[in-house]
Amino acid sequence: MDDGDQRRLGFGRRCRDDSRPAGDCWLLTGDKYFASNASAELAVAAARPEGAAAGVRGLALFLVPRYRHGGELNYFIRRLKDKIGTRVPTGEVELKQSQGYLLGSAESGIYLILEVLNLSRVANSVVNVALAQRAMADALSYAEQLAAFGKRILDHPQLRHQFENRLTALRSAFALAWDSVQLLNDVWMERLPYSDRYHLFRLVAHLAKYWTAEFAVETAKWAMEVHAGLGGLAEYGAERWLREAMILAIWEGTSHRHILDGLEVMERKRAHKMLFRGLAEIASSKELQDMESEVEQHLKLPPEEREALAEPLFRRLAILTAETLARKSG
């Protein structure tokens, strides 16, 4: 179950001995207002064990099967949601003494929850790039076939220039997403205390999820415009990519969440220092010095101002990182 809004946080108590199947079984009670892929065979859910501390430190992570040990349904889907974009079933889920299996220790729950989110955010970044590429491919196919004023619309200078710029940006977005994949591959087995490289991964994952989602939405909108009036008709399919992209931008944390979390890992773990060291062999020293100076000045701002003015900085950092990594791979 994803990290969408929830009305009531679940709580858990250990299974009674006479009903306890193999493994560390708990009984979970609560509900989830927005659970993605609600018909999955297995889900992960956060819940607070009875007597645990308040706040996120008291959360534990559980594996929740669709069916109970005896074969009956383990949780109830109150209703499915009508939403734009993907048709993966999203529903309101009720847990009523549902069997769940503790993952790791109860005390490490919040860290495991964040690790699950980091993994899904990397996957989301890759999907964003793939969606942008598909939207561009559809737009290209259409532009190669439609003629206006005696030639293909693709051959008109303005639109051709837009395609060239969009392709360059796609390569940059892919480079950023792929770097998050490679970093995840390096650190996914780490446990507390995390290394500096793990915190670098966290920053790159936030940058990648934020920027690839923004790029996918912008590209899907642009691809609809290439189709002109037909872009708004469902029968041509171009509008589908915008609906899908809007959902991807919300899944696994909105842009606001990633900006704030990215600021946190820069402020507390100085992850940007390691990022700039890694980019130094590719980017110009002036580029990096200017960006690093801008980040340091921003982190010194009063808290409210630091948050309010964060997005332009985070966007520039994401684009600089993406473009630099693209030069490395190209």
How does this model look, in words?
The chain folds into two domains: 96 residues, Butyryl-CoA Dehydrogenase, subunit A, domain 2; 220 residues, Butyryl-CoA Dehydrogenase, subunit A, domain 3. The two termini are 38 Å apart. It contains nine helices and eight strands. Helix 1 runs parallel beside helix 3 and helix 7 runs antiparallel to helix 9. The protein is flat and about 75 Å long. The longest helix has 37 residues. By secondary structure, the chain is of the alpha+beta class. Strands 1-2-6-4-3 form a five-stranded mixed barrel.
Write a brief caption for the model.
The chain contains 9 helices and 8 strands.
Helix content: 40-55%
Strand order, sheet with most strands: 1-2-6-4-3
Oligomer: single chain
How many helices?
A: 9
Order of helices and strands: EEEEEEHEEHHHHHHHH
User: Using only CA atoms, what is the Rg?
Assistant: 23 Å
Structural class: alpha+beta
- CATH top-level class of the largest domain: Mainly Alpha
Tell me the strand percentage band: 15-25%
Global morphology: flat
Q: How many angstroms does the end-to-end distance come to?
A: 38 Å
CATH-defined fold name of the largest domain: Butyryl-CoA Dehydrogenase, subunit A, domain 3
List the helices and strands and how they pair.
Layout: E1 8-14, E2 25-35, E3 42-49, E4 60-65, E5 76-80, E6 91-102, H1 109-145, E7 147-148, E8 151-152, H2 157-187, H3 196-226, H4 238-250, H5 255-269, H6 271-279, H7 285-299, H8 303-308, H9 310-329
Parallel strand pairs: 1-3
Antiparallel strand pairs: 1-2, 2-6, 3-4, 4-6, 5-6, 7-8
Helix pairs in contact: 1-2, 1-3, 1-4, 2-3, 2-9, 3-4, 3-5, 3-6, 3-9, 7-9
